[in-house]
Amino acid sequence: MSEALEDTGETGIGAPVRRREDLRFITGNGNYTDDLNQPGQLYAVFCRSPYPRARIDGIDCDDALAVPGVVAVYTGQQMVDDGIGDLPCGWMVKSKDGADMLSSPHPPMAATVANYVGEPYALVVAESLQAAKQGAESVYADFTELHVVVDLATATASDEIYEGIPNNLAYTWALGDEDATRMAFAKAAHVTTMDLTNNRLIPNAIEPRACLGMFESATGDYTLYTTSQNPGLERLVLSAFVQVAPEHKLRIVAPDVGGGFGSKIFIYAEETAVIWAAAKANRPIKWVAERSESFLADAHGRDHITHAELAMDEMGRFTGLKVQTTANLGAYLSTFGSSVPTYLYGTLLAGQYKTPNIYVEVQGAYTNTAPVDAYRGAGRPEATYVVERIVEQAARELGKDPADLRRMNMIQPEEFPYETPVALVYDTGNYEASLDKALDIIDYAGFEARRAAAAEQGKRRGIGFACYIEACGLAPSKLAIELGAGVGLYESGEIRVNPTGSVSVFTGSHSHGQGHETTFAQVVSDKLGINYDDIDIIHGDTGRMDFGLGTYGSRSLAVGGSALVAAADKLIEKGKKIAAHMMQATPEQVTFEDGQFTLQDSNQSMSIQEVAFASYVPADYPEDLEPGFAEKAFYDPNNFTYPAGTHIAEVEVDIETGVVSLEDFVAVDDFGHIINPLIVHGQVHGGVAQGAGQAIMEHGIYDEYGQLQTGSMMDYTMPRADDLPDFKVDTTVTPCTHNPLGVKGCGEAGAIGSPAAIMNAITHALGIKDISMPATPEKVWRAIGGNS
Amino acid sequence: MYQFNYHKPASLDEAVALFREADDPMYLSGGMTLLATMKQRLAAPTDLIDLAGIAEMTGVQVNADAVRVGAFTTHNVVAGSAEIQQALPVLSQLAGLIGDNQVRNRGTIGGSVANSDPSADYPAAVVGLGGTVHTQQRSISGDEFFQDLFETALQPGEIITHIDFPIPKRAAYRKFPNPASRYAVVGVLIADFGGSVRVGVTGAGPCAFRASGIEEVLNEHLDPSAINGVEVPDAGFNNDLHASAEYRAHLVKVMARRALSDLLKT
Amino acid sequence: MKVTLTVNGTEHAVEVPANTLLVDLIRVNLQLTGTHVGCDTTQCGACTVHLDGRAVKACSMLAAQAEGAHVTTIEGIGDPENLHPMQAAFREHHALQCGFCTPGMIMQAIDLIDNNDGLDSQTIREGLEGNICRCTGYHNIVRAIESVANAS
Fold first, then answer.
1. B58-265 CATH choice from 3.40.250.10, 3.30.70.2190, 3.30.565.10, 3.30.465.10
2. Could you tell me if B243 lies within 8 Å of chain A, comparing CB atoms?
3. What is the pTM of this model?
């Protein structure tokens, strides 16, 4: 362990504090949704469409209801008849002609037509899981198979899946100046073109989705325990849009959640149907996904086909970038499905470079496959993949060192704030600093020697770069809403200093592995000078905290953490008034530092605990001040944050078998200020592993008939320990300029930079222009000639 | 998993009797494949007859010519047996490559061989070493045991009791694992019996088989480069997401070359 | 049917249907919910427990197969006041994030240490092939196990 990560006992900002949440996880005392039970609960099993597209002509439930223990069978049509609304897509994207995107109808469970394999159409609830399974097998739906659209490349030329949605296109979205970009290409000294695919991924958080729904008929209260990254948003959608229950009567609890990576953001059929059915049955209902259901019905990620062209002048300066992408949306627009391949993708195509002219067009296509939505990085890995693959290829074509070509095109530190041609204003950065550090760590100069050594072992070694940027800390609400978001993207935070001086902190962010209970306590401890151990971080329960937006887009610290800083500032202001009164001074004369309110130019001071006690026992108290010592804040950022960095991969290819081995990986990231470096490093490790998975092994594959071929962990390959090397992780720091912590977010960077770096390394090793992800052994073997 | 009756007989005779009496029985050994299949509701025996209590199916015996492994011996016992490591190290090495540690602590050699999964490792050893599969009623030559995808020479009710592996002069096994499941996409075991070479292949076809083309050239020249010119026909080979038949045929040669290189180093 | 077994040192006689998996007996009947279920195909390892001292996947065996056996789950190796060295190492090295794979990972790590000498980074990685972690990229898990291996 490097020195910076050794436990020093410090707990303030910047200290590698060991996580407090770990104690319950390492002893088996975590509290995941499947660990919860209610007296009298029923067990739910969903009936899922075996067909990728089929009309439901009728459902015979008689045999199912005859199974001992089966209590009820509920169908998609019954939900519709009950007035349950469609699952909405939360982001209205407009086509380049100004037209609203075309949304397909999306009842929570299929009512009249099922549109992908695994789509639920009925729900069986029973006294035992075995009975529910038996019941589900005894539900007979009368399906009429309909033609299917599976292949993304031909989806827009296929027959319509939905009436009124021509060419199966939800939208054709564009960003940038098309004419100016065309002109730049007309004048280019060199143009590099690439056709790239970004493979479909299946998230596979190790905890499968689950929920436990309850209804209290006496009060009309609904409670839904569910595996969610954003319980506040879930409640809003289920009440306002789906209309399962009134918002004030619906409590959503997301207890310990076993990983999300985006897949637990979305409002799914299962929890919607379960909470609805719990009221109908007037019994608690529990559902836990089997892994096969996760494969079929969790939202998938990525799945783009892209044609890109990069124009350069005679010096190799980038003068224009044109990108044409077809994005697979799946059968329905999932909660944020429309925004991922548009606003979270097209806006990042400037990368770290001063490319003056960029034009991107994205076709969002429906297919009869599982919905596609945000997965770790969400749009930004896809953008980085396009930019960093084509830049690397350009360097090869120009005979330039790929590091040098990037360097000459990078935005320089003095050029910030920098407005890109694709609608973002980068606030700060120092891209060369990360590049230099990464080159140093990987020992770039020693590469040729390593390559020669590999060649002696019959291996081809390659090195590849990715200098990525991401827009995180989602997001300025005003901008997001202008661009079509259905909700704001601020975050809520509340700090309650209790009468005895301990602190309860409530955040709208949600931790499902990120360690907020530790880092947020570090922040509050640092701000208020209160002992770290006296601070408790509470999250994930709409019954306990204010409306909040949750955790995704590397936003928790930048937005949720900033909300806590804002709440702490309010507390300090109030504390100054109380202390001033008690020390017979004015608030302006009181300063606050390290937990002490001090009267200037005196030896008088009060601790924050004393002030808190005074506020709750207001014997001697300002007349115009309310008792109590709790403050809340909603923090709305005024810009995105822009983490950026350089990732470098080295791979070796076994030329006889085509097996790619990731030999070395360096990530140097600029996340701004860091609260807990131990946790930041861990986030990068995990992200890189998922990116390596995308590059080398992971692929969600449907066959031509629309059946998922990679429907279990037997066929969907994910990285295991022996597939990965030790990672070399370091950071550089340019503090974010617009949030009080100067932080940028670190959750997604690893997955954003690594696929491009690894694919650049593989193509470098093989001396070929491209091979599509994932670079699986047979594909690589064929790419190098397929000889015995 | 559907309901079934669970039995745990203490002897082979009792097990067979239970089998004869039941409607649609299955034997349960380590259960690493069968239970997964039953969980997916793809198998629904009325009666599950657990072989764990039958003492005569356990144990390892080594003599000068052969290693005898009781059918209920787990992969980790074979992998970790000092006796087998001494007498027939290739078998320990192969067993140590099956599944993962937890699977190796449950899965048994008899279960693996009886199942004849096309991508299981042990069949390469049974075929490549020319083993003999013993049941409660007869002995079956390794060459005749595996018949097709999940099909063996076993008759209904027949139980593998132990397997004998002749000890070659030297042998080696190489496996190209499925990156997701870690089963063998292709596994090749080469055994040199001093004058004759046997090559057992798993993963490539519907069941384990001897690569006679490779055996022929190796009987001439025990040299990896001799394999280069061999034609490995891919007709009937497995073809799936992870490897086409053509690639499997290629891998047979690569794994054979590598196994032979290993063998020549011993 | 009745299954009699010892779990974390306590003998239990549990009446369960024959098709009950060991993991369900542990989680549902004994309410020891630290052992998790992450897949249906014996891949992820989240359900790893010790059966008579060796790591097994509790989702891939019947409760009946554990008749008479000694089972140890994550709850049986230590508690917050008295952590097993492997538990302490996981915390010290930040070897977990969401915590879901962690109990199985720790149980397998202990098996690895108990049954192997001279573990290094590579053999530890190979020894974890039956456990999938989606959060950590394994880097810190390997560090944690290495630290215990080096200390023992």
1. 3.30.465.10
2. yes
3. 0.97
